[in-house]
Amino acid sequence: MGTHTVRHEGADLTYDLRGAGPLLLLIAGLGGDATRYAGLAEQLSDDYTVVTYDRRRTGRSTGRDTDFDLAQQARDAAAVIRSARPATARAVVFGQGGGGSIAFELAAHQPDVVTELVVHDAPSLALLPDAPQRLAFARQVRTTYTQRGAVPALELLGASPADFPEPAAADYFLRREFLPIALSTPDLDAVRRTGIPVVTAAGAGNRDACHAQAARLQAEHLACRYVEFPGDHLGFVSEPGPFADALAKELAGLRRP
């Protein structure tokens, strides 16, 4: 494994490369960094040059303490792709959770760097039939964090500080990332116009969750395939082998002739 850094828009973005083959960028969800993808990256490294990176101000990467900016996060992802493979500056892209929202933004506005796209459990709450209630709940989570702290807020989400790489990551997630991504809506029309092959996915273990519902609606809007991967929201952590097999199968089906 090789570790590298690219300077972009005031931040040093640290990324890791494993394996050989087509470039595959894995974009971490909110509060996550490259470590969360370690098992999946190892499983895929026989067939791909897998890129994992710490998003700005997470893990080893630097950056200002500001609210999550979806457009900037997508530009960061493009900068990592161009640094990792300067000759072609293109990659297969997989994004999970908030990382899926970043992946949609990347495909919509910088399609030249994306060859194929798989998005797993990207929230897109505004697409849901009960969007007003979902968005109100997101604001309630943020209010709970502000008034009572991280643990009660995470409990509302069915999560705990143990789900994050370090305690500070949970605080940063709630303070800077959670609400901006919950309130964002991907430009699916722009993604569709690019012609990039896309699959949306959710975990088989939580097919009734709001992000799984959103994944199905995303697929309808994009006229693309919807699939279920092993495990739940973090199936790539709990079941990296089966998850990698399922992802590799979908990527093989997306490849252009």
Q: Using only CA atoms, what is the Rg?
A: 17 Å
Mean pLDDT: 95
Helix content: 40-55%
Secondary-structure element order, as H and E?
Answer: EEEHEHEHEHHHHEHEHH
The stretches of 5 or more residues where confidence is low (pLDDT under 50) are none
CATH class: Alpha Beta
CATH superfamily: Alpha/Beta hydrolase fold, catalytic domain
Given the helix and strand composition, which structural class is it?
Answer: alpha/beta
Instruction: Tell me the overall shape.
Output: globular
Strand order of the largest sheet: 1-2-4-3-5-6-7-8
Q: Report the β-strand fraction as a percent range.
A: 15-25%
Number of strands: 8
How many structural domains does the protein architecture include? 1
Q: How many distinct helices? A: 10
Q: Predict the CATH topology.
A: Rossmann fold
Q: Report the biggest beta sheet as strand number plus sense, adding barrel if it closes.
A: 8 strands, mixed
Distance between the termini: 30 Å
CATH architecture: 3-Layer(aba) Sandwich
Supply database-style keywords.
257 residues; alpha/beta; Rossmann fold; 8 strands; globular
Overall description:
- With 257 residues, this protein is an alpha/beta fold.
- It has one domain: Alpha/Beta hydrolase fold, catalytic domain (Rossmann fold), CATH 3.40.50.
- It has ten helices and eight strands.
- It has an eight-stranded mixed sheet with strand order 1-2-4-3-5-6-7-8, sandwiched between helices.
- β7, α8 (210-222) and β8 (225-229) form a beta-alpha-beta unit.
- α1 packs across α10 and α3 packs across α7.
- It is globular, with a radius of gyration of 17 Å.
